[in-house]
Amino acid sequence: MSMTDKLARGSRPIRKRAAVTAGVAIGALLLSGCVQSQREEDTGAGGEDAVDSTFVFAASADPAGLDPAFASDGETFRVSRQMFEGLVGVEPGTADPAPLLAESWETSEDGLSTTFALKEGVTFHDGTEFNAEAVCFNFDRWYNWTGVAQAPNVSYYYNNLFRGFADTPDTAVYESCEVNGDLEATVTLAQPFAGFIPALSLPAFSMQSPTALEEFAADEIGGSAEAPSLSAYAEGNPVGTGPFKFDSWNVGEDLQLSTYEEYWGEQGQIETVIFRIIDDPQARTQALQAGTIDGFDLVAPADIPALEDEGFMIVPRDPFTILYLGINHAVEELADPLVRQAIHHAIDKQALIDQTLPEGTQLATQFIPPVVEGYNEGVTTYEYDPERAMELLEEAGYPDGFEVQFNYPTGVSRPYMPTPEQVFTNITDQLSEVGITATPSPDVWSPDYLDKIQGTEDHGIHLLGWTGDYNDTDNFIGVFFGTESLEFGFDNPELFGSLNEARGMTDRDAQTELYSEINEDIAEFNPAIPLAHPAPSLAFAPRVVSYPASPVNDEVFSQIELSE
Amino acid sequence: MLRVIGKRLALLVPTLFGLSILLFIWVRNLPGGPATALLGERATPEAVERVNELYGFNEPIVVQYFTYMGKLLQGDFGVSINTGRPVLEEFATRFPATLELTTVALIFAIGIGIPLGYVAARRYGSFVDHGSVVLSLLGITVPVFFLAFIFKYFFAIQWPILPPDGRQDPRINATHVTDFYVLDGILTGEYDAAWDAFLHLILPGIALGTIPLAIIVRITRASVLEVQNADYVRTARSKGLLEKTIRNRFILRNAMLPVVTTIGLQLGLLISGAILTETVFAFNGIGRFLRDAIFGLDYPVLQGFIIFIAVLYAFINLIVDLSYSIIDPRVRVQ
Questions:
Q1: CATH number of the structural domain A6-298+538-562
Q2: pLDDT tier at A533 (50, 70, 90 boundaries)?
Q3: Average pLDDT for residues A123-136, to the nearest whole number?
Q4: How big is the CA angle at B26 (ends B25 and B29), to the nearest 5 degrees?
Q5: Structure confidence at residue A492 (pLDDT)
């Protein structure tokens, strides 16, 4: 079965050209072994002023489905962001919420109800009007999911953020949605949720066409209880309000979108977007070099200098990540605050960044990146000072140092940690300088490593991190230090209490202030060591003039500028 | 003949039954579980529990096995955990790609391997002979991913005459009827699409065909060397038969028996070799799909795939055995 079965075929010059070039070239291949670069000449298509309006981007995987409400992964969201829009968007280049389909909103004193004023003249790709009814339809849809749709891995974000459904109203954050007129809707929550507005900028909460959702039975998933299956909507009938509409999805190969003519905003230069599925990182780099794609994400740090030399554009994002050295307080030596300070002083974070992490990585002093609310500029820091580290160790009763298990994952590359093995080696070296001997304890990332770190006490110091979803401080430190965990193994009721308090606050300014204080408390307590905020980079063909890089990946291709 | 085929097919039943039990126990006893794989680094124990319950991973393994077998016998291989589509449908979409690729690899390996092995044996000790030995050694030792890197570097980047990856240029918007892209292009009259799909097969086909090529060269060479010194060849020659007749009817025909066996075995290897080749060439076949399933602990796909391969392998062996009777009259008589 193929979803690209289309009769309309473009007659682009590239086909004939490719055929002719290839035919001639095969003959040449047999005759000669000589090699020379012809890339420049070969990729120039069309007239001098004409811009090739097809943009080809290499995705590392297929989207999990075309319904973003049932998705949580980056590749699905990348595709979703082209087709869908939410009530709330993101201020370009930051992580701050900004108006999108809602032009403005007002929240009641108690923080429980928010009234959205909607943008006028917006239509879905199927012609359905976008209005207050469509907004309430979407909110009610999420709330009324049943069965497999409620599974935490299926509706990941709704589960995590709205915490309950119509049949479990006791835990649910959402209560109701009211249509106040064509362009005004009020959403009422059952309990305060300070992150409500920023959360709505996630593609999972995009506005989808009520007509299409019903017609293609979007909520009919889970034909069997063994594993959820995709609905007809998620397989090939997504309908949003974004600048691009869905064309075809040839699973495992490519996914195509094209301009939505009636789009309310700026359309941009690109008329066709092709996502090609290339899962091997090396293959993506080579595809860019060969000129078959225009760009890809998560460039391997080692490839950056070479690509830059060859004239490709590297675009780093502002980091929205944290890489830390976790410490298990259940281990006797590590429970001692002096020892933890000693470890902190023993690590030269800048050297670690220069030697093992991609360009654009920022040094971390706390567990949230600078663009997140509550970042504290004046937080207590522990400068690199091996002498001081040795003094502290002596004070703690370990004049000759000690031995500790060092856990790290293998065979994995995360946005916050492209090469765990290198980070491990680097830190091990640094620790040995002050007399701390790290015994290596590698495990395969999934599921062994995660199970061991988060499910057992059998670990000493370890590498882990997080990539944020949207501008929510709790999404970082609340997750790490909000309750007692096997990962860190400490009990600090005071810290747990203030994190809990901050999470429930309705006044965003007061909340930011409290988070800033909490960040200082954490720095003083020093439960683990924030190392770096690695920045992921994208690479593009020379014809790409600019790309709207966003720390939270809110990148819509209609804003890309092309030169040819 | 029919009885032989029937007997062979009947033997398949206990084999598959045993295999399915082994597989099931092995897969379910992998460390951790699919829940962790599905939920990532911040899964709460409650969420893991919920997933296990929904997917039936909490049931006793015997119950899980019978549920699985019951469905399997009705042709239901389950739904892929990673993609949310039926396993059988996923195979059906991707199998043509792998078949296309292995066909090209096999044509490459046989088309060059047999003549080269033959010439090397006939000119034993010559430059061609030594060259073929060195080449076949290289072919066996160079890993596919390295070969892929080199091929792409030279033939797609430095000297861009062949596409570096994929099955077809997505800009062509070709019509797909059978999912065999080359065939589709010919059937629909979109010859440029067929040509483009064919070009996409060259680099991965050669990369995948290298190891079989090396093995076929060696076996052919060894086999021809042995046969050409056999008594009956000497007798034929002393009878004054034409050299052409000696070559075709006496040497080649006799030398082909071990070669055919080897090719049959290679077919199975080609499919496992496709895992690596398809991954590095972003070629959308079952090899790449299986790799994703391994990394994502996609149980239904792993189980379904291995059973599928076992059946395929059994059929290939059957065909190889039957082809003996064509080459060797003695087998036919028995």
A1: 3.40.190.10
A2: very high
A3: 97
A4: 85
A5: 93
Q: Which residue in B39, B78, B280 is closest to A153 by CB distance? A: B39
Report which DSSP code applies to A506: -
Give the tokens for residue B29: 């006893």
A34, pLDDT greater than 50: no
Report the largest interatomic distance among the alpha carbons of chain A, rounded to a whole angstrom.
80
Question: Which CATH code for domain A321-533?
Answer: 3.10.105.10
Question: How far, in Å, CA of A124 to CA of A85, rounded?
Answer: 10
Name the residue ranges covered by the structural domains of chain A: 6-298+538-562, 321-533
Find, in chain B, the residue whose alpha carbon is nearest to that of A448: B32
Look at B192 and A21 and tell me if their CB atoms are within 8 Å. no
Show the 3-state SS of B265-284. Answer: HHHHHHHHHHHHHHHHCCCC
Q: Does B51 touch chain A (CB under 8 A)?
A: yes
Spatial separation of the C-alpha atoms in residues A506 and A528, rounded to whole Å: 29
ipTM over the 0.85 cut-off: no
CB A339 within 8 A of CB A516: no
Averaged pLDDT of chain A: 87
CA dihedral B144, B145, B149, B151 (to 10 degrees): 20
Tell me if residue A55 falls in helix, strand or coil.
strand
- Chain A residues lying within 8 Å of B78, measured CB to CB: 224, 226-227
Percentage helix, strand, coil, to 5, in chain A?
Answer: 35, 20, 45
Residue A120 has pLDDT above 50, yes or no: yes
What SS3 class is residue A450? helix
Are B282 and A283 in contact (CB < 8 Å)? yes
Beta bridge partners of A184: A117
Helix (H) or strand (E) holding A532: strand A529-533
In chain A, % of residues over pLDDT 70: 90
Closest partner residue to B93 (CB to CB) among A2, A6, A447 is: A2
Q: Which residue of A lies nearest to B47 if distances are taken between CA atoms?
A: A152
C-alpha–C-alpha distance, residues A48 and B115, integer Å: 50
- Is the per-residue pLDDT at B29 higher than 80? no
pTM of structure: 0.82
Q: Do B173 and A6 touch (CB under 8 A)?
A: yes
Q: Is B277 on the interface with A (CB under 8 A)?
A: no
Q: Do domains A6-298+538-562 and A321-533 have the same CATH topology?
A: no
pLDDT tens string B61-97 = 788 788 878 887 887 887 887 788 888 888 888 999 9
Q: pLDDT tens across A214-247, in order? A: 999 999 886 544 466 888 999 999 999 999 999 9
Q: At what angle do helices B144-152 and B253-280 cross, to 10 degrees?
A: 70
Ordered DSSP codes for B173-236: ----SSS-HHHHHHHHT-HHHHHHHHHHHHHHHHHHHHHHHHHHHHHHHHHHHHHHTSHHHHHH
